[in-house]
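Hello support,

Our group uses your service weekly, and this is the first time we've seen a run hang past the timeout. The protein is Vitamin K epoxide reductase domain-containing protein. I'm not sure whether the cause is the sequence or the server load. Input pasted verbatim:
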Amino acid sequence: MEKSAVRRRAYQIIIAIAALGFLVAAYATVLHFQTGPSTLCNLGEGFDCDKVNRGVYSEMWGVPVSVLGMAGYVIIALLARELLASPRRRLKILLAASIAFALGFSAHLAWISSALLATWCIVCIASYTCTAALAAVFAWGEWE
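Update from on-call engineer: The timeout came from a worker crash unrelated to the input. Re-ran successfully.
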């Protein structure tokens, strides 16, 4: 496949992954505001979505981090869509920076789960996986 075709395919995959990430973050937002326990996500010792998703680290400036994630996934999808329509260097840099920021923020949240809370949220892990996949697909599109 020629370079431009690989990049186009990568941008299409990025849009799909960002859509999936948005849905995961939306579900995490529902869990954040839910009043009862999240039985689906609480799998015992070491896996407690309620502790992670409703705890002290679950919000920034009074906004659930899952809502920030939803916004990030939308921005990434829109940038990739724009690159499909009109490939421009500045847009590619913005997409790379957005994905890099999301990856770093996900790593920070994973560290909080591991080091400070000593428990994990499977919905959050799904979001971290989406972010890592975005980075991998972007890299593949650039270096194929």
